[in-house]
Amino acid sequence: MSAIQKSDPQIYEAIEREKRRQAEGIELIPSENYTSEAVMEACGSILTNKYSEGYPGKRYYGGQENIDHIETLAIERAKELFGAEHVNVQPYSGSPANTAIYFALLEFGDTVMGLKLEHGGHITHGLPIAFSGKAYNFVQYGVDIETGRINMEEVRKMAHEHKPKMIVAGFTAYPRDIDWKEFKAIADEVGAITMADISHTAGLIAGGVLESPVPYFDVVMSTTHKTLRGPRGAMIMCKEKFAKAIDRAVFPGLQGGPHEHAIAGKAIAFKEALQPSFKEYGAQVKKNAAYLAEKLMERDFKLISDGTDTHLLLADLTNKGVTGKQAQHVLDEVGITLNKNTIPGETRSPMDPSGIRFGTPAITTRGMKEPEMDRIADWMDRVISNIDDEALHAQIKEEVKEMCLKFPVPGIKV
Ligand SMILES: *Cc1c(COP(=O)(O)O)cnc(C)c1O
Q1: Best of 122, 195, 226 to mutate for ligand 1, by most ligand atoms within 8 A of CB?
Q2: Which residue of 96, 139, 161, 247 shows the fewest CB atoms closer than 10 Å?
Q3: How many CB atoms lie within 10 A of CB 309?
Q4: Measured in angstroms, how far is the CA atom of residue 100 from the centroid of ligand 1?
């Protein structure tokens, strides 16, 4: 980064400080990961200079021979990875990708079913103040407050009552596996289009440890930067019959020039995910999450749904006498990063809710395994049980840093 150092010391220093933060802390935000050096090189490459509106072989600007090759590789690898009929790798990120899907397959005002935000849905799944909630008539299902799981009979009842044009499944804060086949069966009963949003779990699906919706669902969206461990961005997979509508909605419907540096990064990430080592990664992410859940429950943490099938955990801290916001803040002080989160049946405000959300994708990329999960559970418990003990926090911060420095982050030399 010597060029940045010379031209812009302020940004250089900030990046250096962020490197240190990433290297010395435990990253438990379940939507984050560490991408490979190869992916980062692509994102920082000269590909950022090129305009390439259109699709491979059908562009609006000249000079596309290398870009077409790169984007075609990304598409072919994604198809192989997920067994998809058609793939669009141009969406800038998950939210615009979901917007493109709705724009492609719905009319404004159409009825759509999605999961409530406070039960684990995403803002693009019909939050009333978001574009999705304003442009479409979202009716929202929830999870069973007792079990923390989606009640498929309630989904069926709502589908028959509201006759949605589309049913959205796949979530941002839901720790359990999803019954794709049952969602598809319900959608077929009412003639709805099926849309799966696998942003959180795509890496576990590609790694073969969670079931894939791709064979059953009409459209599947994923971000590429979460468990899939690629660059920031997204992709849309769909059945051939929706291919034209999806492509047109992404460009020119919603976006202009695609970010080909990010698309090159996606191509590299898909190749990495096709390697046998990625299957091991997926399996270890899941094992680590299950083990962390077990170790926290031993310490009287109340986990929503009493555990996890995925990379993600959600805890209600009410019995610990702290709020989600307090826990996030005090854990940040010792170098453990996670986020406050609402829980099903939330009685507090989203800015200071009862729960926290965390997960294992990033720490597993660093090579952490069960013994480290044990230590993390212990630190979390001691910090949360002693939120005013600054001496303890200082001591744990040192222990966290010492452990972290044994597990390198790709692209960071310490
Ligand atoms: C992360 C996420 C998105 C949005 O991704 P951005 O890239 O942040 O816009 C959409 N849906 C779900 C379920 C997600 O978890």
Answers
A1: 122
A2: 161
A3: 18
A4: 13
pLDDT score for 283: 98
Say whether 315 sits in a helix, a strand or coil. Answer: strand
How far apart are alpha carbons 123 and 113 in whole angstroms? 13
Ligand 1 centroid from CA 31, angstroms: 8
CB 224 less than 6 A from any atom of ligand 1: no
Identity of the residue numbered 190: V
In the structure, what pLDDT confidence band is assigned to residue 117 with cuts at 50, 70 and 90? Answer: confident
pLDDT for the residue numbered 294: 98
Cross-strand partners of 315: 303, 356
Residue 203 CA to ligand 1 centre (angstroms): 14
- Contact status, residue 11 vs residue 4, Cβ threshold 8 Å: yes
Q: Which of 256, 138, 251 is nearest to 195 (CA)?
A: 138
Q: Is the pLDDT of residue 414 over 80?
A: no
Which one of the listed residues 35, 99, 194, 223 is annotated catalytic? 223
Residue among 50, 156, 232, 375 flagged as catalytic:
232
User: What is the 224 CA–ligand 1 centroid distance (Å)?
Assistant: 10
**Is residue 118 very low, low, confident or very high in pLDDT (cuts 50, 70, 90)?**
confident
| pLDDT mean over 340-356 | 94
232 is catalytic: yes
Active site residue 197: yes
Q: Collect all residues with Cβ–Cβ distance below 8 Å to 175 and sequence separation of at least 6.
A: 148, 303, 304, 305, 307, 308, 309, 310, 312, 313, 314
**Half-sphere exposure of residue 192: CA atoms within 13 angstroms, side-chain side:** 30
Q: Is residue 318 in contact with ligand 1, taking CB distance under 6 Å?
A: no
CB 95 near ligand 1, within 6 Å: yes
Q: How many helices (H) and strands (E) does the chain have?
A: 16, 15
Is 325 an active-site residue? no
Distance CA 56, CA 73 (A): 10
**CA–CA dist 70, 266 (Å, integer):** 10
Which domains are assigned to the chain? 40-273 (3.40.640.10), 283-404 (3.90.1150.10)
Percent of the chain with pLDDT over 90: 98
The set of residues, in sequence order, having a beta carbon less than 8 Å from that of 7 and lying 6+ positions away, is: none
Q: With the CA atoms of 246, 251, 255 and 256 taken in that order, what torsion angle do they form, in degrees rounded to the nearest 10? A: 170
Cβ contact 177:160 at 8 Å: no
Cβ neighbours, 10 Å, residue 42: 25
